[in-house]
Amino acid sequence: MTQLRGVGIGLGIAQGPVARMAEPFPAPSDAPSTLDAGSETTRVRDAVAGVARELEQRGAQAGGAAQDVLEAQAMMAEDPSLETEIDARIAQGHTAEWAVHDAFASFRDTLTAMGGYLGERAADLDDVAQRVIARLRGVPAPGVPDPGHPFVLVAKDLAPADTALLDLDKVLALVTTEGGPTSHTAILAREKSIVAVVGAVDATSLVDGETVIVDAAGGLVLTEPTADELDRAHRRAADRAAAASAPVTPGALKDGTAIPLLANLGNADGAADAVALGAEGVGLFRTEFLFLSSSSAPTIAQQRASYEKLLAAFPGKKVVVRVLDAGADKPLPFLNDAHEENPALGLRGLRALRASEDILREQLTALAEADAATRANGQGADLWVMAPMVSTVEETAYFTAIAREYGVKTAGVMVEVPSSALLADRILAHADFASIGTNDLTQYTLAADRLLGSVASFQDPWHPAVLRLVREVGAAGRAHDKPVGICGEAAADPLLAVVLVGLGATSLSMAPTALADVRASLLENTLADAQRVAEAALAADDAASARAAARAALSVPATA
Q: 149 catalytic, yes or no?
């Protein structure tokens, strides 16, 4: 038996035969076109439009985070700059296939050189180009294989369009050789409850048909398993399924310490499913969906309707709404679409809202009106409002003051940059609560763009530097007797969730599908256990060592 190591997503375990993702098309021939330029241009227009509509349709079918990603890809396919580049190549006598290949490759290289969010989108361009070329040739695009039986899908990485519509009756597990815990594949695997191990670089050795065990809890892919190992893996999967179907209970540690388990939501439509999966409220409601699809800010009435729907779905429960977090990967034409050399360090989050304060005030007005309306009809939730990307004490005082003007009783801040973590004791003197966004906190602490594949290995919230900052915020919360939540992807990691509680987190918010695993993990440990394992992780030198130390401290099995 050989163990291939990667980053596990969740606690699941699965077994089955490997089916590898097909390799992409080779580059088209540069032979001159036998058609006139007008005919080739028409072919391209039809193919690009067809791919864009297909991506939008897949997004509508998938919903959730997948829909946002696929709609962005559809816009990318029809980018006017790409269209111009393709037309120029066709005008030189090239075929539509070669023009698409070369124009997309040139655009990809430009984005890669720019780095940051745009650099990460370069990989999406490759997928779109392959789909357009396939449509031009009248053949299926390279994608998920169909061997005719359930299988473990192995790939370099998965394009969002493929991940969004995976047939979960056939795909037993995912294994990728690239990507990290915040990659699109990892996020969508959590959302769909797919057993997955990402970043398993040695999985390139796996071949079609061989049987493997994919152990997300251990972050392992086991090759050539024995009959006994397969049987143990089967029993673990059955036990996990039984635990998931058990009656939902509030989040708590083994000693009874309450740790509310909340949902991260991108729109109010996901509220019912979150409740069904045991969400005790909402720890992060992203309001960007109201703004991103429009060339102008939504009206107060439009916002209020969405907020009322959300609050009514959680009567009496805590609902934490993040005001608009625009900038960096989410530029808006009516807020902050000016070019920035490094947008991740530019005018984003609360900084952008202060520069266009009318948008912030309209959002707070809509939230206050929605809160009043739902309370009036007996459906009110416990509304908390927080600001994104707060980096100073002064910003904290500014936001809490303006929130109070609109009657917000509980106003807090997101801790996403090291400065706010290091000043948490002073920030919590003003804010009513803190919510740690581990995705951004990790990228800023390790100076590694969270969406850039080339530095994915650095984007790991297990890194002791990140854990130390979380400890600072936890200590400040205890000193001020104020709540400290976690709303980044780290909270969805069942083992890391225990560590975060040991560091002082008082609530955890995650994709609803991760709630069952985290709930089960917490119930196996007391607060003293959590604090002990947190200290073990803090004593490590790197993320991998911290994860291993935590597993050893809690005696979590590392193999099937």
A: no
